[in-house]
Design goal:
87 residues; alpha+beta; two-stranded antiparallel sheet; 2 helices; 2 strands; flat; binds zinc ion
């Protein structure tokens, strides 16, 4: 008897989430520098990270409701991994 199991896509998703989260924190850290103070190479790295996220994120989209005022609530949809919004 073997306990070996075929790797599920779930495991891959977890890894994807870890990678996208790491890329996302790197992106946010880099965005902490004012745009006019970013050297060319720095911008290139930032662009590369954005492209990576775009290309590799297996979006996990959730719906959220935000109260903008007492009588108005807006609905937004966003990816929990790369935080991209869809509305
Ligand atoms: Zn995403």
């Amino acid at each position: 008897m073997s306990n070996r199991r075929i790797e599920s896509t779930c495991g891959n998703n977890e890894q994807n989430t870890t990678i996208i989260h790491a890329m996302n924190s790197a992106k946010h850290a880099l965005e902490g520098v004012d745009e006019e103070n970013r050297p060319e190479e720095y911008k290139a790295v930032l662009a590369k990270i954005s492209t990576f996220i775009e290309r590799h994120c297996e979006h996990h989209i959730v719906r959220d409701y935000i109260d903008v005022s007492v009588e108005k609530t807006i609905m937004i949809e966003y990816c929990t991994k790369c935080l991209k919004t869809y509305t």
